[in-house]
């Protein structure tokens, strides 16, 4: 009897084990089917854009400072007491405009004295000339000796030289009198006066009376990394765009708030020496300043645009995202339709497009929509974007 009960217990245990195994197998089969279904029909849908290559003019933005186109320090050329200041500080002055008046009394007297000496020399020259003419006649009749005639001719020439010296002295006196009117050497904006009425001026003194600066046009001085300039030149030469290398680059000034000035300038020259301390090359540009928005010494940013176009990789701004460390990146869909992270370097923007300086190639597919649904190596369903997000435009 005991044996029969034991056999029944064993049978029940076996049945329970078989049922449990069947349940587990069914669950595994069900889960596997769901995973396959997920892989087949539930991959996130993303929209991609194929990276393009366009011909654009390279641009670079560099910090710089403005400098006056011409600078002139006003100094007296004669000594005397300053009588008047004849300009408004901070105003625009013209070349040749009288700025100061130095007491002219002594110089007016010097002119009169020089005029008198000239008249005296001219009278002496007239007398000796008449004698020389008579001696030429008398020497023929032997009334005077040949030696006397030669000496008289020499005296006459000496009188002529005295007239020339007196005339030069008069001209000098008149120039010095004119110098009592201190005039603007250039046109431009004049600063504050450093001297006042009653001050004693000294010819060619060290201290300037005032400073005039021409600020239209204006210089813009920037420092560009030498390695970047070399890389840009190499790219231009490799693209065959160096045929117009003689054309100057255009320059646009960006104000402190980022707003560009309407007028564009041109690059004048780049220095031939690299600064050993900073590794930069000095570049000077000339920009119009008709509205006087720029003043010498201002800190600005200058946008330099090359005159030659070169192939440039472009991608939509919508493709740009960042890593946890803040590095720019984009998701690229590979040939197996998997999303791959690609670190990139970006340049300027053109409309809804951005310049890619490294990290992407023309023809690659970048994800522009559905970024929040994906992670690295995940399988995606691709929808090609038919056209660019917006007209990229072209650099001018």
TrEMBL record:
Keywords: Signal
Residue span(s) of domain Multidrug resistance protein MdtA-like barrel-sandwich hybrid: 70-213
Subcellular location: Cell envelope
Alphabetical GO biological process terms: response to antibiotic
Chief place where the protein resides: other
GO MF terms held by the record: transmembrane transporter activity
Signal sequence, start to end: 1-27
Ranges of residues in domain Multidrug resistance protein MdtA-like alpha-helical hairpin: 112-180
Residue ranges constituting the Multidrug resistance protein MdtA-like beta-barrel domain according to the UniProt record: 217-305
Keyword Signal: yes
GO cellular component, one term: cell envelope
Domain Multidrug resistance protein MdtA-like C-terminal permuted SH3: 313-373
NCBIfam families documented for this protein: RND_mfp
Family affiliation: Belongs to the membrane fusion protein (MFP) (TC 8.A.1) family.
The protein, known as: Efflux transporter periplasmic adaptor subunit
Species per Swiss-Prot/TrEMBL record: Desulfobulbus oralis
